[in-house]
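[job 4471] stage=fold_predict status=RUNNING
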Amino acid sequence: MQIAGIQTDVQIGDVQGNLGRLETAVRAEVAAGTALTVFPECFTTGYCFDSLEEAMPFAETIPGPTVQRVEALCRELRTSVVFGMLEKDAGRLFNTAVLVGPGGLIGSYRKIHLPYLGVDRFTTSGDRPFEVFECEGLRIGMLICYDGGFPEASRVLALKGADIILLPTNWPPGGDYMAQFSINSRAMENGVYFAAVNRVGTERGFRFIGKSRICSPIGATLVSIDDDTTGTVRADIDVQLARTKRIVRVPGKHIIDRMADRHPEWYGPIVEPHSLPRPM
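[job 4471] inference complete, writing structure tokens
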């Protein structure tokens, strides 16, 4: 399967315009042989809202008009898309990534780890477990931006069988080393493909750094955009490579298996609750 990540600008509050740009990009990717196209965090809405009251009118339910429009596109083109949006549910606001395939809505993920930045100052932390979704034979886990800096999240998705972890993101300055090092590490330590798709441009004084990349299950960078220009990262995904966790480097002398070699009995402090205050 060929996947692609679209590194592009977003217009805050222009849902219809952003959806138009999504449709144009997906049609071009399908023509190029891409089966799954990934867009940045909050792609349809923008990110730098200044209050819950300002952001909420741009949020939608799932399913809703935005998801239905992407479903129609995916059915027409027999393709799959992941994109970021703002979701509303019972008066709460979530930063959500949505996966749509040729048959319609497959699943969604609500961002769990929230930085004190942009609309995440007003969103609710995700209230559902990490989940792996099947799409055209590919097992997909989704995270969003800041989630990528918490290795526990990626490990849970790997343990649940993900072949690839998709990270729609809005990295501002300060995320440079996350882009440069952490994405490769998450891929290598879990034996999965990892695709981070960032936006570019400036929104309400915040610049976004781009630096999208796709990494292989050994942590190698398959393709990257190393600056904040618009562009596309594309790579072929071999699910068997991601599912082969036992790596024999020298028969009988050097074997690596980062799933079987774990010792969860010593990891208890990771899941102990804490009482640290969220920044204000």
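[job 4471] summary: Helices lie at 15-31, 52-55, 65-77, 151-159, 176-190, 239-243.
[job 4471] exit 0
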